[in-house]
Amino acid sequence: MQISQRTQVGIVGAGPAGLVLSHLLYLQGIDSVVVENRSRQYVEGRVRAGVLEQGTVDLLTDMGVGERMKAEGLVHYGIELRFGGQGHRIDFQDLTDGKGITIYSQHEVLKVLNNARVATGGQVLFEVENVSVHDFDNSKPKIRYEKDGNACELTCDFIAGCDGFHGVCRPSIPSGVLTEYVREYPFGWLGILADAPPSSEELIYTYHDRGFALLSMRTPQISRLYLQCDPDEDIDAWGDERIWQELQIRLSSTGWKLTEGPILQKGVTGMRSFVVEPMQYGRLFLAGDSAHIVPPTGAKGLNLAVADVQVLARALARFYATGNQCQLNNYSHNCLRRVWKVQRFSWWMTSMLHRFPDENPFDQRRQLAELDYVTSSRAAAKTLAENYVGLPMQ
Ligand code: APR
Ligand code: PHB
Fold first, then answer.
1. I need a surface site. Which of 94, 133, 138, 147 has the fewest CB within 10 A?
2. Per-residue pLDDT tens over the stretch 207-254
3. Which H or E element spans position 316?
4. How far apart are CA 391 and CA 310, in angstroms?
5. What is the mean pLDDT of the chain?
6. Are 225 and 194 in contact (CB under 8 A)?
7. How far apart are CA 128 and CA 80, in angstroms?
């Protein structure tokens, strides 16, 4: 059976970008439908990022979906940079006039957003198949998909491509329109989720001869830890004991102890920096990971996705209220200014903290000097702090 439907904004992908956009539009009285190829259970269970910038926290709060985050999130006012076995605190509160970050799992944010969409009659269609986007270079864009064996067509005014790096929207833009800017890193992160109380109140980013390590957390009972590894590292070669042993070595510091516990999940992720320009073609707007990827050092991916859709929601609200397309036309330009600054920061944190296979002793000395500078100069620490808590939303 062929099913036809109409909405104002058709959104592909129910990740942070798609769901925040859909709810922001609802709050402005704009109708949207989200199509997602995974199940709700999968999306809400997938362990991803966990650091929310102040601006992201403020936005979710203003949207009325911040209650659980406020109750359960862990507010941090600093991070530690550890090198040469010594810890150095970057004090965000002092360096950014009181700003901080909130540790709260991305999938918990998604659960709350899904509930809010359902409670307000929003349409988020999970487990749709064969999604494709059409006619976005004229005024009647369409999203086609299959659901429960039916062929469906959603006609909309605009399409938001919030379908992540591997989605269908970006590749649907005619060739020659987009320019891709890419940097691959010659390493990955081996990440674990452990049933162990975090051994530090704040995150610890460690530079070590054997490679980078990071101590993070999800709750006061659950630690999240990462080790720099080869990009194609075989996770099966890493038994739990080996992982803890390596973490103990890289994170070691006098008078400090890393608490171990059962490993609940483990995996390897690659690292890349990626941007497409422009982030718009006709009536198709790319937002979040579909338009850009950052390496995880600095935890910017989720926050950047939220920043994009904030710009997009504002531009769409202006259009529907006044017919003025100015902000929509400037969407890409406005987003990219912030995107590139965040790219720079994520690349810089990554470059400062990891060992590179082609580095020489000069490079290593330079990295250590940079860490020394960042932790001893107020001006340098301030640039790290203001980027980490989040640059202002445009
Ligand atoms: N059709 C429908 N949905 C799709 C398709 C498709 N063809 N392809 C991908 N999706 C869905 C994915 O299943 C996913 O739920 O789009 C969603 C994209 O979500 P994310 O990858 O989380 O991207 P985004 O919303 O931009 O958020 C980016 O979240 O997970 C982090 O590392 C990520 O921090 C970054 C941020
Ligand atoms: C995480 O908790 O998953 C995390 C924290 C900080 C980062 C990256 C990931 O820089």
1. 138
2. 999 999 999 999 999 999 999 999 999 999 999 999 999 999 999 999
3. helix 301-322
4. 14
5. 97
6. yes
7. 43
Chain segment 121-143, per-residue pLDDT in tens: 999 999 999 999 999 998 899 99
| Closest Cα to atom 29 of ligand 1 | 302
Cβ(18) to ligand 1 under 6 A? Answer: yes
Residues with catalytic function: 76, 205, 296, 300, 388
Q: Are 303 and 52 in contact (CB under 8 A)?
A: yes
Residue 47 scores a pLDDT above 90: no
15 phi-psi bin (left φ>0, alpha ψ -120 to 50, beta other): beta
Query: Among candidates 199, 207, 246, which has minimal Cα distance to 224?
Result: 199
DSSP state of 235: G
| DSSP-based three-state secondary structure for 65 | coil
Which of the listed residues 11, 23, 37 should we mutate to test ligand 1's pocket, taking the one with most ligand atoms within 8 A of CB? 37
> Does residue 148 surpass a pLDDT of 90?
yes
What is the C-alpha to C-alpha distance for residues 112 and 361, in angstroms, rounded to an integer? Answer: 49
Separation of alpha carbons 329 and 258, rounded Å: 51
Is the separation of the CB atoms in 79 and 204 below 8 Å? yes
- Is ligand 2 within 6 A of the CB of residue 298? yes
Between CA 165 and CA 219 the distance in angstroms is: 28
For 211-236, letters b (16+ CB in 10 Å) and e give bbbbbbbbbeebbbbbbbbeeebeee
Beta-strand pair 9-12/158-161 = parallel
Whether the CB of 295 sits within 6 Å of ligand 2 = no
